[in-house]
Amino acid sequence: MKQSITLGKVTKFMGLGFLGTIKDLFTGKLEKEDLISFLRKVVVPFASILLFIGLWHMGSQSLYNIEAEFKIEKALEDQGPAAAEALRACIASGESGCQPNTLPSPSQVWASYQSLLRDHNIISADKAAFIEKTAVLNEKRIAEGKDPITYTGRPSFVDQIFRSLKTVFAGFLLALLIAVPLGIFIGLSPTLKSAFNWFIQIFKPVSPVVWYLLVFMIVKTLLIDSNEDSSFTISFISVGLCSMWATLVNTAMGVSSVDKDYINVAKVLKLGPFQKIFKVVLPSSLPLIFTGLKITLSVAWMVLIAIELLAQSPGLGLFVWEEFQNGANDSNAKIIVAMFVIGIIGFLLDRLMLTIQNWVSFDKTDAI
Amino acid sequence: MAYLELNNIYKTYGQGEHETEVLSNINLSIEEGEFVAIVGFTGSGKTTLVNLINGLIEPTKGEVLFKGQPVQGTSHERGVIFQNYSLLPWLTVGQNVYMAVKEAFPKKSKKELNEIVANYVEMVSLTPAINKRPNELSGGMRQRVAVARALAMKPEMIIMDEPLGALDALTRGNLQDEILNIWGKDKRTALLITNDVDEGIYMADRIIPLRPGPNATLGPEFKIDIERPRDKTELNDNANFKETRNAIIEYLMDIGNERKSEAQEAFVLPELEPKSFVGRFK
Hints:
The structure holds 2 protein chains of 2 kinds. Chain A has 3 domains: 31-100, no CATH class; 104-154; 157-360, Orthogonal Bundle (MetI-like fold), CATH 1.10.3720. Chain A contains 13 helices and no strands. Chain A has helices at 7-13, 18-27, 34-79, 81-93, 106-143, 157-188, 190-203, 208-222, 231-256, 260-268, 273-311, 316-326, 331-360. Chain B has a domain at 33-48 and 73-240: 3-Layer(aba) Sandwich (Rossmann fold). Chain B contains 8 helices and 10 strands. The interface between A and B is medium-sized, with 18 and 22 residues. Chain B: This is Nitrate ABC transporter ATP-binding protein. Chain B: InterPro entries: AAA+_ATPase, ABC_transporter-like_ATP-bd, ABC_transporter-like_CS, ABC_transporter_ATP-bind, P-loop_NTPase.
């Protein structure tokens, strides 16, 4: 019996089943019985999104008014009624110089998002032009054995996103390479377990900031001769060390709690130690390992922002920090845009892991 | 010299005060080519006995001799069919059998190994399901995979630990016939652990009841002198069958009654005043 792969199955597999319901709605395949499930899966989320935006709008309006009144009051006290009237008129006219600085409204955030996209288009056009301009010169330089000239302009918002993703994946890979093998050894040997237990218990709750400082101390000395910018190295190592604990603990637990029946099978078949690990122990602990990896990836993405901010490594964290320091009129709105982008990417990363987990796991029950 | 010999086996679990003797003074000898069934209540230590014979655990006292040699660890010469199938759920039917065959015949080429796998899967008539995973199969099919896996290693002795316990009556009957067929073909030695007296009589040459544990020990043996191949429907009218069956069931009932009378000992609860918590949480 061959199973065909349909769009519906793929989306369901990725935990995005609601897309299928929307598709059914437009293709008219929806049955009456599905109406309730349609209401629940499509209408309710949309309604709650609208409600959220509405509340946000009202909240930002009232914050705006509080801030504006405070500013006018202050002007009245310090500079007299004429200045207060001028400020009131200035705020009402919407001029950017005198706007109260508070929580931006949804429309402001949307405008900032579009301005960030425009900015990205300008910068990428600029970059393309630069590459075109220097192409001939660079060829010559490479022929002469010199380094090519690279674009050193300001990175756009989209570039920052990709930098952040690069850092998080490097950190995740580091966590994977350390935590999974170590977890397997700890899970297999009670001696190693008691040797490492204090280490795990003590270092697991350490905050990302402290990890960053620790990595900074070590990497700074190790790369003392190099002129390269070490911020990327430092930030991805810190991310990896911060986030690896969930995988380490889960792997060790999965490996040490393999069903006794499977171990008996391995004994009766007289599997060698390698065969036993790769054919029995690992497949059986795979679901737990993946649960750990999923937590690791989401922790990595969460601490990344803080670590980039500290390490001054380009990325979303640095973007947020620079906008906060910048204090321009639309800075707050840009921070909120970054917040949504961070949230959405975190969600997508989680789905990605879930998809991979469903793919490799023998246990096809829905993982959450 | 017997093929498999158990001499004065004792097995205890726990230590000190918590020590319980599961098996005591077990003596058993099985000849080559014989089919022996051990019948016992659940919880009487049957699985412990099986694990002693296949080498997963060691006796506290006494020795297990296989072909005159003490059993040390598991061996490919003794194939085991577990009570709960114990198939690896991440491997397909074919891969489950292949893994066993590969370990048993490490020198054979991949093609030869695949042929063996195909043969044994065919033998338990699961060829259409060879690429399915265990959780897509019914209980009976899974147990057939376990049978194929154990037999494909060409063990000299087959040890079956309540292999059909979890199956419905119809599937059970079919599988009994299949196992007998395979056993009959090359007359391997077989040891069947079961809680079903009829199954034991239908399949075995000898039935030995296991008196329930703790301190489980083997009872007197019952020889089954019914000619093979045995017919299930005719068996019911066979005088010999009825006699043996009644004798075994009577024996087991007696043990059960003995146990009951032991259990009827009254346990007197100590006279205790309930503790008062009043004023504790002030």
